[in-house]
Inverse folding.
């Protein structure tokens, strides 16, 4: 029952991350009041519109904006994987060969570091992170040109993207951006509740305890 409950939570979280249907991703009522040249960018949408409480885009040029957007996308993509992995391991699932006594949640790091097999897994994870960081970037040495900030296809991956019309491309990018934002808040909330010892998962599941 614990596994089923956590898997249902995983499925529900994916649905919760999806934004509601909107005719346009821009909250014109709010962005119209903004003097920022980025008030019409992708991600400026209801209910907050253009929201920059720290003033990070004040007097920012396009290069700075693109850098911040790339970081937002990367953190969002990692957070989506983190939420998925957190809920999957909380359900009790483990990859074949994974030590069964390794707990879910933050406790996994200490448990893996306490054994030789666990240390080997940590090394493999570190190598994967390095490889992922190398691959997931715009390869300037290729003949392909990135279509937008965060486009790391590099002429090798497509999955039907080039068959989408402009409206569907914009909506798909907006969905990814929103999912990433929700996932960043989601993984932060999951980890925070684990640390303070209060479960927010079905059945009172509390990883690491």
């Amino acid at each position: 029952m614990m596994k089923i409950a956590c898997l249902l939570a995983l499925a529900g979280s994916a649905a919760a991350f999806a934004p509601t249907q909107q005719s346009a991703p821009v909250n014109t009522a709010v962005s119209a009041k903004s003097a920022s040249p980025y008030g019409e960018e992708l991600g400026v949408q209801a209910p907050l519109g253009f929201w920059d409480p720290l003033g990070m885009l004040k007097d920012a040029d396009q290069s700075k904006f693109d850098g911040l957007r790339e970081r937002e996308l990367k953190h969002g993509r990692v957070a989506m994987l983190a939420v998925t992995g957190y809920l999957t391991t909380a359900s009790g699932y483990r990859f074949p060969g994974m030590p069964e006594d390794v707990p879910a949640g933050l406790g996994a790091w200490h448990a893996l570091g306490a054994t030789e097999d666990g240390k080997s897994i940590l090394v493999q994870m570190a190598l994967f992170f390095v490889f992922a960081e190398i691959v997931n970037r715009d390869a300037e040495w290729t003949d392909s040109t990135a279509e937008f900030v965060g486009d790391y296809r590099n002429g090798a991956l497509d999955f039907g993207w080039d068959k989408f019309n402009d409206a569907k491309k914009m909506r798909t990018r907006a969905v990814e951006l929103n999912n990433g934002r929700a996932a960043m808040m989601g993984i932060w909330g999951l980890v925070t509740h684990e640390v303070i010892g209060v479960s927010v998962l079905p059945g009172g599941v509390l990883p690491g305890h």
Notes: Residues 166-196 form the longest helix (31 residues).
